[in-house]
Amino acid sequence: MPQVSGLSISVFWAGVFALALSDSAFEAEIFRAGIQSIDKGQYEAAHSISLSYTDTMRFVILPQAIKRILPALGNQLIYMLKMSSLVSVIGMQELTRKANELVVTEYRPLEIYTILVLEYLVLILLVSAVVRWLERRMNSNGID
Hints:
With about 140 residues, the protein is mostly helical. About 75% of the residues lie in helices and about 5% in strands. It has one domain: Orthogonal Bundle (MetI-like fold).
């Protein structure tokens, strides 16, 4: 069982913590870049109609920024899905580790790894489809 500062935590939560820690800086940069990409005139226009900073971010800046960051965020989520195989280092049973164990017991690497690749392909295609659906939905709602 993994330990953090003397506290024992489950393998699942250690994996979640490790993935979140490794991915959070990338996602923060994606959000920062998306917000900074919005034209300064949008802030000025919101200020001119007396919107508070919170309302400016909520109603003006973030809807536009989210539309811009969605492709990069989708790519980062797919990357994190692929990197989830690294949690097998701490003993978590995930797809790649389970496939390796099956190869050792069944002696059929071609079939097992083919199924593994197909599983990852289906997961990645599902995430990509959801991101594309969100992009189309935002475009049809007229969010610029």
